Amino acid sequence: MLLILLMLITLSFIIFYIKFNSTKSTCSITPSSSPSLISPIKKEIVPIPKIIENDVAITKLVRSGGLGKNAQHIAIYNNLIYIRFLRRNKKGNTIVVLNKNFRVIDEFCKVPGTCIQVVDNYLYVGVPHNIYRYNLDETTGLVTNKDSPTLILRGVHSNRVSDSPIFIIDKGMMYVHIPSQTNSCQIIHLDRKKDAPGEMPCNRSKFTSSVWLFNANKINQTIDMGQLYAIGIRKMRSLVIYNDQLYGIIQGRDSLYDLYPQFYTKEQGDKLASDELVFIPRNSSFGFPYCYWDSAISKRVLAPEYKGDGKEIAHCNSLIDKPIKTFDNHNGPNDLLIDDNKLYIAWNGKPYPLKCTEETCSNLSVTYHVLNKNYEEMEIINNGILVQFDKRHKTKPSGLAKLPDGSILIVDSMSGKLWKSVLKK
Fold this sequence. Notes:
globular, five-stranded mixed beta sheet, mainly beta
């Protein structure tokens, strides 16, 4: 009897064990009925608006990206579009060629840079320290010597990709701007450090923060073979020729409040120093690194690295050229285009994380400025916005070009989006 009882107890235990483990196994592979436990919260993907319209133009998204990050300037040749990049794409290239339908048909060049320009049947390209020239085939519009470009200028004083020379060619002459390597001519490793003084005199300002003039058709030139054309220019990202004269936008120095809160309020630090649209004649000087432009008083002010206090004028306005127009808030002017008596500016935004709203995103826009036809030098008589981007567009405009159909092409530096602006009549 006892044996039968023990057998029944053992059987009951085995049945319970099997049921328990079967339940555990089922729970481990069968989804719970509660969606909150197993269904990840899907972030709603908001599509990018493909059309932006204002009183001036209709701007359409013609390519949604995929070209690469850090797109810069654009050149047009035989209906083909050449786009320059500051970073290699997935295939390791930094120049992408598109047809009139905005499809990639070629790519090349392993070295990043900013500037690119077509002159006759040549493609000029800037890389850190050097400027090269490629040959273009008149029939296909493509480069014929991808692996063996001609070296035009070598050994300029740049030490970062973003400091590759900025240039423009006009009537056989090549204007070359070499950006400053520092905020205010401090010793390199002390750049943007508190209480780091600027060098006096700034001996580097001859070879950086300046514009030089070279023969665009002469090969293997060095800096000493050029002519020093203008000085005191901290940093420009683009140059334009208007009525045979040279113009550019100087990006003003930064970090005034961060480094010198005893002299500047945060509001002043956000605005100063102003970016400056300038006419650059031969032998002109714009004061860098000793001075910067303060739009609140329309004067140049002595930099704190040179014993300035935010108010001291000192020598800063004697024999130093003044801007045509100034812009506050460090909104990153990255490219210029002149067409039909209008100056277009691509504003790439602040370099640090953007503060976006639905309406605007650190002034990510392309603006236009109507020029006085009756005045030989550049004089602005009206201003407007060609297109204003906001956070929905995920676009930082960085390059501009006029297409053969008369529209304005805009490239974006976030992912290589392309926008096309058609002006209203």
